[in-house]
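Study this chain:
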Amino acid sequence: QVQLVESGGGLMQAGGSLRLSCAASGRPFSRLSLGWFRQAPGKEREFAAAISWSDSSTNYADSVKGRFTISRDNAKNTVYLQMNSLKPEDTAVYYCAAGYGASLLRTVYTYWGQGTQVTVSS
């Protein structure tokens, strides 16, 4: 099992920045691919960003590309999501996820955190 605990959410004005953190425990962190997903009120959960276990390659949703940066620190068993130029439409609960796969596109996210609320005011 992998336990994931997110932190760093909060209320921010449009144009501001937030950094989310997700601390993992339970299995070798360096072999896990990691992702951030988000769910806005009344909408389906959607993919935001991911980072691979093998070469730290990354992938982003078009809606966040150029504004969000995902990174990982294997020594601290932590994955981060730096969110810049925030928009009201970024308001959502943000979930950290972890899983295994030969590539980012083939990763099956088996483990999920409880989520952290991000609210962006206009």
User: Anything to note?
Assistant: The longest strand covers residues 92-100. The radius of gyration is 13 Å.
